[in-house]
């Protein structure tokens, strides 16, 4: 069973952002979609970039 939990509202790059790595970085099975990012177990999303805010989140089972 899958659970969705809102952690925080952030401004994310969109699927068509020309330079998404300026805003956020992903590892593992992470996909930027319209309105958010979908993280599978073990994937991470971090904002330790010039435009980010030094926050990271991780996908869990």
Structural class: mainly beta
The average pLDDT score comes to 74
- Described by its quaternary structure, the protein is single chain
Ends apart, CA distance between termini: 9 Å
The portion of residues assigned to helices is under 10%
The largest sheet has its strands arranged as 1-4-5
Total helix count?
A: 0
Unreliable stretches covering 5 or more consecutive residues? none
Characterize the overall form: globular
| Element pattern in H and E | EEEEE
Strand runs, count: 5
Kindly estimate the percentage of residues that lie in beta strands according to DSSP. Answer: 25-35%
**CA radius of gyration:** 11 Å
What would you say this structure looks like, in words?
The protein has 61 residues and is mainly β. The chain has a domain at 21-58. The protein contains no helices and five strands. It has a three-stranded antiparallel β-sheet with strand order 1-4-5, with no helix packed on it. A hairpin with a 2-residue loop joins strand 2 and strand 3.
Give the topology.
Elements: E1 25-27, E2 30-33, E3 36-39, E4 44-46, E5 56-58
Antiparallel strand pairs: 1-4, 2-3, 4-5
List keywords for this structure.
61 residues; mainly beta; two-stranded antiparallel sheet; 0% helix
């Amino acid at each position: 069973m899958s659970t969705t939990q809102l952690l925080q509202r952030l401004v994310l790059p969109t699927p068509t952002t020309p330079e998404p790595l300026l805003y956020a970085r992903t590892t593992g099975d992470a996909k930027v979609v319209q309105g958010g990012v979908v993280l599978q177990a073990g994937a991470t999303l971090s904002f330790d970039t010039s435009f980010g805010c030094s926050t990271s989140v991780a996908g869990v089972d």
